[in-house]
Amino acid sequence: MQAVTVDHISMFYGSKKNRIQALHGVSFAVAEGELFGIIGPDGAGKTSLFRILTTLLLATEGSETVNGFDVIKDFKEIRKRVGYMPGRFSLYQDLTVAENLEFFATIFNTSIEENYDLVKEIYSQIEPFKDRRTGKLSGGMKQKLALSCALIHRPSVLFLDEPTTGVDAVSRKEFWEMLKRLNQQGITILVSTPYMDEASLCDRVALIQAGKILSVNTPQGIRGAFGKPLLAIRSTDMLRLLNAIRKYDEAEDCYPFGEYHHVVMKSHFNEEKLRKYLQQQSFEPLEINPVQPDIEDCFIALMSSISERV
Amino acid sequence: MNKYNTGRSVESPSSGAGTSVISVQDLTKRFGDFTAVDAISFEVNKGEIFGFLGANGAGKTTAMRMLCGLSLPTSGKATVSGFDVYRQTEEIKKNIGYMSQKFSLYEDLTVKENIRFYAGIYGKTDAFIKEKTEKVLNELHLQSEARKLVKSLPLGWKQKLAFSVAVFHEPHIVFLDEPTGGVDPVTRREFWNMIYHAADSGITIFVTTHYMDEAEYCHRVSIMVDGKIEALDTPSNLKKTHEAKSMDEVFLKLARKATRND
C-alpha cells in the first residue's frame, strides 16, 4: 500500500482579490517504508504540503490520503498515525525536556516507557538535561527533543519539515544517519530540505519550486534524466572565465559550482574547439573535465526549462 | 601558491600585505566560566571575500558581534576599518554593513521605504539617496516593484535587495551572516555574483555559510572549532593540507574534533 498519495492538489492563500497560489496541481505517492525527500528552496510550498498531509490545513483543490485514510473524512485516524516535526520549533518552552515528552506521550494515550526503544538513541543524548526548561536548550538539543516528541507515539509516517535548515555540515550528517536508522525500523519518512546535496540520501525525491513539482524520481533517475553533456572547467581568474564561456556558442548554461564552473553543453559539442577558444583568451592553466550532473545541476536545468515554457 | 587560483578576481587580494581592514589578535569572549571565543587571531584584507565557517555553537556569532561593535570582548585586540572594538564601536557601526537571513528588511515597508530608512540611519543625504536608489533599483530590475511592500517579493529578490541595502551607504566592510539560506540554486549564484562585484569595487566581504560549495568561492576561509580558529587558508590550500577532495571534507575533518555540544 502507498503510505501517502497526493493527487492534483492546489493551495491558495489570501482573499479573492489578492490570491497567492502556494501549490499548483501537485501529485506524487510515497510507498510504505520509503525515505522520501521533498527538495526545494523557501517558498516552494513544502510547508503547505506538510500541513495539508498532517491535516492541519485544507487544500483548495485535490485529494490526499495518508495510510489509506482520506485527509478530510478520516483526519482523526491520520492524526493518530503520523508524527510531525514542524520547521519552526513548537514545543512548550516553559515545560522541561521530560515534561514535553511526557505531554506528547500522554495525548497519544501512551507512555515514554512503552516506546522508549524507538526514541532511545535520540532521547538519551538529551536525557542528562531532562529537568531543564526547553526554552533554555541549544538549537541542536531542541531539535533532538522535537524529534523524540514526534516519535513517542510510534507513528507509521513521520513528517519532518526542514529539520536540517541552518544546521552545520557535521550535525546534518549525523541527523541523516539517525533518519536512516529510524527508516530501517519501518517508519515511512517524508523529509523536506532546501539542501540539494541531501537528495542523494533519500530513496526517492520530489524536486519542487514555486509550488510546482519539477521531477519525482530516485536520485539516480533524476541525474540520469539530465540528458546533456556537462563539463567542469577551471582556470585562473574564474570571473573572467565565466563571462567568456557564457559567450561561447556551444555552451547552453554556465554557473559557478564549488571550485569549478559547470558548463552545460549542446549535445554535439567539440571539446577541442572549446579548449582552443579559451586558450586563445589566455586561460592557462586550463582544466576541462566531463562530469556527472549533481542534483543541483538537475534542479538548475529543470528550473530554467520551466521558466522558458512560461 | 596553488596552480589554480580559485579566487574569482584576477589577483587574490590576500597576497597584498599592509592593506588589512580587519585585524584581530587574541580576541576572547567569556560568558561566566564559558569561553565562547578563545584567543582568535587573523587579518582580513581590503577587497577580500573572507569565509568565516564553523559548526553551530563554535563561536562564530559571538566573534562576529564583537567585530560589529555589538559586544565588548573580554580580552585581546581588534580593529575594524581602523577602529577599536572597545572604544570606537559607534565608528565601526557607521563603516560596516550587515545582513543576515533572519534580520534584513522591514516587511511592512515598501522597497523604496526600506532603502530610504537604512540610508537615512547611516546619515546619507537626500540627494545621495535619490540618485543611488534609482541606480540600485535598475541593477536589481526592481523599478516596477519600488512601491510594493517587501513582504510581497519572492525570497530571492528580498535577499538581493537586502544585500544592496547593506552596501548602500558604501561601507568598507560588509558582514553577511548566512545570507543565502533557503534560496534556490540559481538565485544563490546570482547573489554570489553581487558579492564578487562588491568585492571588486573594494568592499571587503566577511561571510558565514553552511553551503560548503560557497566556501570555495571565498578567497580565504577560516574554520572555527570550539571557540578557536583551527584552520585559515585559501580553499585550495586547505584541501591540500587536509588531504581532502572538497571543502565539505575539510570541514567535516576539522569540525568532527569539536567536543562542545552546541
Overview of the molecule:
The complex is a heterodimer of chains A (310) and B (262). Chain A has 310 residues and is an alpha/beta fold. In chain A, a hairpin with a 2-residue loop joins strand 12 and strand 13. In chain A, helix 4 runs antiparallel to helix 5. The longest helix of chain A has 16 residues. Chain B is an alpha/beta fold and 262 residues long. Chain B is 34% helix and 25% strand. Chain B is globular, with a radius of gyration of 18 Å. Chain B is built from nine helices and ten strands. Chain B has a single domain, classed as Rossmann fold. In chain B, the strands form two sheets. A six-stranded mixed sheet of chain B has the order 6-7-8-3-9-10. Chains A and B meet through helix 5, helix 6, helix 8, strand 12 and helix 10 of A and helix 6 and helix 9 of B.
Main attributes?
heterodimer, A: 310 residues, alpha/beta, Rossmann fold, Alpha-Beta Plaits, 2 domains, six-stranded mixed beta sheet, four-stranded antiparallel beta sheet, 10 helices, 14 strands, 33% helix, elongated, B: 262 residues, 9 helices, 34% helix, globular, disordered N terminus
Q: Main sheet of chain A: which strands, in order across?
A: 6-7-8-3-9-10
Pair of chains with the largest interface and how many residues each contributes: A-B, 41 and 46 residues
CATH homologous superfamily annotation of the largest domain in chain A: P-loop containing nucleotide triphosphate hydrolases
The CATH level-2 architecture of chain B is identified as 3-Layer(aba) Sandwich
H-E order of chain B: EEEHEEHEHHHEHEHEEHH
Number of strands of chain A: 14
Oligomer type: heterodimer
At the first level of CATH, what is the class of chain B?
Alpha Beta
> Major β-sheet of chain A, in short?
6 strands, mixed
The CATH C-level class name of the largest domain in chain A: Alpha Beta
The overall pLDDT average of chain A reads 93
